[in-house]
Every structure is written in C-alpha cells, then in structure tokens.
C-alpha cells in the first residue's frame, strides 16, 4: 500500500463540539489522520475514529511540543499538516495543494491563520498571523517550546529561510479566541500558568517573558502584559522573528493604559525597523487621535491606506490598511465637525467590509444629530444598504433603534417579515420595538410566536416578563415564567437562578414593595439578574420598576455599599441618590465621594465635582483616581476658557497652542 502523501497531525482533549468541523474541512485532502488524545472524557475519540483517524492516547505532560512530536512520530506521509480542533482548513483548490507538495525546493510553508475574536465572524475584530503548519515529514523536524510551540527553528537549523515558502492559497480559520470558546476552555488561565513557569525557570530569556506577556494580553490584563513586553523589548533586535509582534503589542498595551507618549516612541522605533508594517502606522494614528492631534492622526491613516494591508509575514488586525483606516478617518472628521467628510469615510469603511455594521451606526448617529428624521436617514442610506434583503432591512432597523427612532425601526422590521418566514431574531426585535413604543400587548404577541426550542426563547421570555411589568396596568408574568421553567428542566443551575429571580421580582411587583422587608436575601446570581432588569427598565424609561429591581439587587447591603454597586453597574441616577442619602446620614468614604464626583462630571456640574474630588483626597491623600479626576476638572475649565478666548481672539496663536496642550493633557486623563 502506497504511503499517504499528506498526514494530518493533531493533539486534542475534550473537543467533541469543535472536532467535526475541523476534520470535515480536511477529509478530502489528507491521506491519514493522527490524533494524540491527552485525556478526553467526552466523545472526542469516538468522533475522531468515525473520520478514520488513528488515535494515540497519551497523558498530558504540561508540554505542547512533547504531545505534538508524538503525533509526528506516528505519521507516515511525505508531508505533515498540523491543526488544532478549533480550526478549519480552507484551500483554494486541491490542485494548489498538490502543487505546493510537489515543489522540491521547499521544506515547509507559512500559511495564514485567521483568528476570529468575536463569535459570528462578522469582522468586528479579526487577527491574522503567519505560522508554519505544513512541512515535510523528516525526523529532524520537531516542535520546541512547552507553550506556543514552533517547528520552524528545527527547519532553519538545516536549511536557509528560502526553503520555507508562503502558501497564499491556504488559510486556517481559528475560532479558539472567541469569547465563548475562551471562557468554556479556560485556555488563557492554563497558558498563563505555563508561561509563568517558563519565566521562573528561565528569567533571563526574552522569549519566555514574551510568552508570559502574550498570556496576560489575551486576558486583557494590560498593565501586567506591559511589564513583560517591556522586558522582551529591551533585547530589541529587528532580525528576531517575534520582535515585530512585541513592538505591536507593546504599543497596544500602552494605548490601552493611556500612555500615549511612550506608545508613540515605541512606534517610531518600530516603523524604522519595519516600514511596511501597517499596524504600526494605524496604532500611531489611534494614539494621536486619543491625544486629539487630529491632523497627525489623519496623516497616519492616509499612510495606512497608502501601504495597504499588512504583509502576511506580520501579525495584523484585518482592515488596518483599508476599512479600519477609513473608519478612524471618519471619527477624526466627526471630531473636527466635518460631518459630510466623516460620512463619506464611514461609507468607504462599510463598503470595504460590509459584514461590519459599526460604520452604518456612526452614520445614523451623525445624521440624527444633524437633525434628519428617520425617513430622511433611510433615504440617505438606501444607495448603500441592500434594502431588498432581510439583512439590509434589519441593519437599518437596528441603527434607527439605536437612536430611539423606534416607530420607523418597526416599519423596516415589518418589511423584513414580508421577505420570508419570520425567524426568532426578527420576532424578538419586533417585540423590542413594540415594547419601546409602550405597545406592550403587541410586544407580548410577538414574543409568544417564538418557539420554545428556539435558542432565543429565554431572551423572549425575559422580554415578555418586562412587557408584563411595564404594561398599563401591569400584569403578572406567572404564565411566562412557568413556561420558561417547563422547558429548562435539564439546562443547569444558571437558568434555575434566572427563573428564581424572575419569580421574586414578579411576586414583589404584584404584592407591593412591602414584601421586600419579608423577602430573604438574594440567592446566588440573583443580583446580576436584577441589575440586568434594572438597566432594561432604565432604557425603557420605567423608573418605578427600575428602582424596584435595584432594591432587590442591593437588599442586605448598607446604603453606601448599595450605591457603590449601582455605580459599578452604570446605574448612575440610583447610585447618586443612594450615596447622597448615605451622606445625609453621616456615612461616606473616599471612594463614594469620588463616585458622586464622576457622576457630577457626566452632568457637567464641575463645581460640585471639584468639591467631591477634593473631599476624597482629604480622606485619602494618595488616592490616584481622585487626583486625576480633580486634574480633569481643572483642565476642563481651562479648556472652556481657552475655547472662548480663541473665538474672541482668532488671531492670537498663543491661545490656540495652549488650547492644544490642554486638550492633549485632558485626553490623556480621560
């Protein structure tokens, strides 16, 4: 029997959900499948064997390279393809793949790995990076590194860089960084522990610090990531393969932490070393935009568009050389008061990546702010949105809903219904439009049409309860909650907690707030559910049920603590009221003073904010956030005076320079 040309090699554990998609993508392309299972307790092994895989069981040793190399030892093909279970292979054609494998001058290939960072693959954030996943089956080629293992170093030890080609026709879609997958697999925490051990074992190794930085970065712990990236960056050598990524991610951390000046310094060095790395230009523009240096930011974005998308050899965020650059230009023009220019830039961003709807939302908000009515907005967008499709109508309805044009949004949702059988998502959206319009009975009818086996049924049931409680007069939601409970018997404690919380709210809403005194303290998970209800009631303009939900969420807490919790859930009106009542009773601390000061800033009550930030600093002199808040208040006042001065004395350039300096400092503190 002839040896298979291409062997797929994998390591897996408890991957029954993801594995079928992966194996189906390569079934017609590979001659054999080698799967090393490191301890699955689900149907992973059974699924792998159903695709004809040879399964090797091996206990997890805390070393990805060891497991990966075991799979290579079992492979008989001339070439190796390595995939993870949460990936799928896309190949332009079998002929393209055959041509790559027939090239005698190549020992391996870089392919593009496309990391979807949000479920749905809608282009909100897609990160690309090159990786050697296709290479010849030679005993000398083995992976190294316990974490973020690589095979490329072993190839380069024996061959020049030219022996590793770029396979432009092959990409790997990676779904492992979607939020849902990351949470369910506990992947970032596992990687963090492994990376910490690497640094502990090799404290002088820049690569170990880089891996630890990446682990913190994935968890969005930017301050800790920054410290590790700085250590890695100290050994900066533009020839080292991972240093372009160090430069990029170091700048991202600095921008996230509002260290814009240092970010610009890092990016300046990086651009000299990697002049074609478009991401660095984009990040410079983003930093300058945050500093309100709009002209320089726009120049950086024009540089991005001139360069185009980042070359495949670098880690890159999709769109920095196209639609994302246009989008940031739109934001710059919007801040500069150039509405029409901003709209044109947003249109170009939308046309560059139509799966990304943020530009349409920005256009609608701009037009609405300019005084256009809902119908006029729809007419303006009609050349760019496919309003003969359900998707185009829903996008338009969603954007109008976002600016509270609920009636017109409902019109377009109803048009979408005419194009085919109503999906659960359309019924849910229709119900929300009707609920926002206070047409609660019609909203309930829309929710009732959603089938109990629809994934959106739970959302519809919650909305149905909200509609019941918002009705005039309010009616009890017993039947909806009972129906939800009947179809949630085997779904676990999370839905049980939801049903219990809905029952509590329904009982108190029907019996009056006097029942609060006799109700027990909140059960596990209940406060989060009540805060969710409070925010929904707030969005609907229903103050009384909102306050009831807040009282249920905070029962058992003292006034000061209750107010702080409301603040953290962005329920600022109840937070201010509750904390101020605590102040009247003589109870306060630095944190509560700071919170009310922040609320005052939101309401442009700068004099009151100044007093409260000052009080916070009297109580805790070293409280950094209060000091920053007080500085913001002073800078906002200075900015207002300088703006007025510039308008009254347009020829006085010194005022304009001072305004720029104040605005830059204010941006760094905001």
Describe the structure.
With 670 residues, the chain is of the alpha/beta class. Strands 1, 2, 3, 4, 5, 6, 7, 8 and 9 form a nine-stranded mixed sheet that branches. Residues 489-493 have low confidence and may be disordered. α10 (243-256) packs parallel to α12 and α30 packs parallel to α32 (624-648). It starts with 5 loop residues before the first strand and ends with a helix.
User: CA-to-CA gap between the ends?
Assistant: 69 Å
Number of strands: 9
Q: Main beta sheet: strand number and arrangement?
A: 9 strands, mixed
- Structural class comes to alpha/beta
Low-confidence stretches: 489-493
Measured on Cα atoms, how large is the radius of gyration?
A: 29 Å
Q: Beta-strand percentage?
A: 5-15%
In helices, the fraction of residues equals 55-70%
Give a concise summary.
With 670 residues, this protein is of the alpha/beta class. The longest helix is centred in the C-terminal third of the chain and has 25 residues, at 624-648.
Structural key phrases:
670 residues; alpha/beta; nine-stranded mixed beta sheet; globular
Secondary structure layout plus pairing:
Blueprint: E1 6-12, H1 19-26, E2 32-37, H2 44-50, E3 54-57, H3 64-73, E4 79-82, E5 87-91, H4 94-102, E6 108-116, E7 126-136, H5 152-156, E8 164-174, H6 179-185, H7 187-201, H8 206-218, H9 222-234, H10 243-256, H11 260-273, H12 278-290, H13 294-307, E9 316-317, H14 323-335, H15 339-352, H16 358-369, H17 374-381, H18 390-402, H19 406-417, H20 424-436, H21 440-448, H22 457-470, H23 478-486, H24 493-511, H25 515-518, H26 526-539, H27 543-554, H28 559-568, H29 572-584, H30 590-602, H31 606-619, H32 624-648, H33 653-669
Helix pairs in contact: 7-8, 8-9, 9-10, 10-11, 10-12, 11-12, 12-13, 13-14, 14-15, 15-16, 16-18, 18-19, 19-20, 20-21, 20-22, 21-22, 22-23, 23-24, 26-27, 28-29, 29-30, 30-31, 30-32, 31-32, 32-33
